[in-house]
Design a protein that fits this description.
Layout lengths: L24 E6 L3 E10 L2 E11 L6 H4 L4 H20 L4 E6 L1 H5 L3 H12 L4 E2 L2 H11 L10 E7 L4 E7 L11 E7 L3 H7 L8 H16 L8 H5 L3 E6 L1 H11 L6 H4 L3 E3 H12 L3 H5 L12 H14 L4 E5 L3 H23 L8
Parallel strand pairs: 1-4, 4-5, 6-9, 9-11
Antiparallel strand pairs: 1-2, 2-3, 6-7, 7-8, 10-11
Helix pairs in contact: 2-4, 5-14, 6-13, 7-13, 9-11, 9-13, 11-13
Length: 359
C-alpha cells in the first residue's frame, strides 16, 4: 500500500514519546463534500479513536459545470486541512495517510491544489483511484458484514462518486477480508446529482424519480457482478450503506433528537423503512429538512440526492435489509496502517538482532 508521508511535526520514529504511551495513527479523507480526520491508537484487534474531526467543505461545488475547483471551495478545504494538520502535530502521530478522492481526480487543477496543500499545511495528499477507494471502504466496514448471508453489497455514497463493492460471503473464512467479486465506481455523488437536478421550492415525486432513474442507468450497464444476481434475487444478500446521507436517513428513521453515532452505526433498516424515510423527506420543504436534527442546513439540499442513489441501488440489487455504517474510508486506512506496522514488527522479530559483521 502506498502511503503519503507524515505531516511536519508527526513523530514518525517515535522519538519524544514515552515507551508506555500508545502510538497514534491518523487517516485523513478529503472528499468532494467533506474533510474528515480520524486519529486512533491500536487496541486489541482494532483501534480506539482518540480524536475525530469533520467539516463540510464542498470542495466539488460547481466542478461539474466548470471542470475546476473554485477558489472559495479550495479556501474552505484549506481551512479544514490546516486544522487537521495541527491536530496531527499535537497528537504526535507516528503514521499518517492522507487521501483525496473524486473532486481532485476530476478537476483540471486538482494536482495544483494538492501541491498547494503540501506547501501551506505540510500534508501530502495522495489522489487515490476509485478501485482503491472501494477497497478501503470495504476494509472499514468488515465488522458490519453479516456472514450468515451469501453476499453483501457495500455502497459508499460520496459527494462526487458512488463506489459499489460486491463481496462474496458464502464459504468465506470467518475472519479477514472476504473475496471482492466486482466493484464499480459511478461518477455521481450527492453533490453532483443535486447540482444536476436543482430542487426548486418543493421536492416532487417526479423530480426524485428522475434522479433515481439517472443513477440506475449508470449502474445497470455494469455486468461483472451478474454472477451474484441469483443470490440477491433470492434475498440471500444484504446491503451496507456508508455515507452522511444514509446515516441521516437512519437518524430520521430512529427519530433521534440529535445525531448519535453510537445509535446509528451498525443498525439494520428494512427496505420499507428506507422508503418510508425517503418519503418523509420528500414531504418536507428545504427549510423543514434543515430543521431536522440529523440533517441540518449543510445537508438539507443533498440528503434527497443520497436517498435517490440508495433507492436506485435497491431497485437494481434488491435486498430486504440494509446495514447502516457510520464508518468507511478512514477506518479502512487506519486498519491498513496498523496491520502493516504490526507485520513489519513481526518480521523484524523473526530476523532477530543484526550480527556484528552486518553491523
Amino acid at each position: 500500500m502506498t502511503e503519503a508521508p507524515s505531516a511536519p511535526g508527526a513523530d514518525t520514529r517515535g522519538r519524544d514519546r514515552s515507551s508506555d504511551e500508545p502510538a497514534c495513527y491518523a487517516a485523513l479523507d478529503l472528499g468532494t463534500n467533506n474533510c474528515r480526520l480520524l486519529i486512533a491508537t491500536p487496541q486489541g484487534g482494532g483501534f480506539r479513536v482518540v480524536e475525530a474531526y469533520s467539516r463540510i467543505v464542498r470542495l466539488g461545488e460547481g466542478l461539474g459545470q466548470s471542470g475546476r475547483l473554485s477558489e472559495p471551495a479550495m479556501e474552505r478545504a484549506m481551512a479544514a486541512l490546516k486544522v487537521s494538520a495541527e491536530k496531527v502535530r499535537r497528537r504526535r502521530v507516528v503514521r499518517l495517510r492522507a487521501i483525496a478522492t473524486q473532486a481532485c481526480r476530476m478537476a483540471e487543477n486538482g494536482q495544483t491544489f494538492i501541491d498547494r496543500v503540501a506547501d501551506e499545511t505540510g500534508l501530502r495528499l495522495q489522489i487515490i483511484s476509485p478501485q482503491e477507494e472501494a477497497r478501503l471502504s470495504v476494509a472499514g466496514c468488515l465488522n458490519l458484514l453479516d456472514r450468515t448471508y451469501d453476499a453483501a453489497l457495500v455502497v459508499d455514497v460520496g459527494g462526487g462518486s458512488t463506489e459499489l463493492s460486491w463481496v462474496e460471503l458464502k464459504d468465506a473464512p470467518p475472519t479477514g477480508t472476504p473475496p471482492l467479486r466486482a466493484w464499480l465506481s459511478v461518477p455521481i455523488g450527492v453533490v453532483t446529482l443535486a447540482e444536476r437536478f436543482p430542487e426548486g421550492e418543493t421536492a416532487t415525486d417526479g423530480w426524485f424519480r428522475t434522479m433515481v432513474e439517472t443513477v440506475k442507468a449508470e449502474i445497470a450497464a455494469f455486468k461483472r457482478a451478474d454472477p451474484l444476481r441469483d443470490v440477491f434475487d433470492a434475498d440471500r444478500a444484504h446491503l451496507i450503506g456508508t455515507s452522511g446521507a444514509i446515516t441521516s436517513l437512519a437518524g430520521l428513521h430512529l427519530k433521534l433528537p440529535r445525531y448519535d453515532r453510537s445509535r446509528v452505526d451498525g443498525i439494520w433498516m428494512t427496505r420499507d423503512q428506507c422508503d418510508a424515510a425517503s418519503g418523509h423527506l420528500l414531504a418536507l420543504n428545504p427549510r423543514q429538512r434543515a430543521d431536522q436534527p440529523c440533517i441540518g442546513p449543510d445537508r438539507a439540499d443533498l440528503v434527497l440526492a443520497g436517498a435517490a442513489i440508495l433507492q436506485a441501488v435497491q431497485e437494481l440489487w434488491p435486498c430486504s435489509r440494509v446495514r447502516v455504517a457510520d464508518r468507511g474510508l478512514r477506518e479502512g486506512i487506519l486498519i491498513s496502517l496498523m496491520a502493516e506496522r504490526s507485520g513489519r514488527r513481526r518480521r523484524k522479530r523473526r530476523r532477530g538482532p543484526r550480527s556484528m559483521a552486518a553491523a
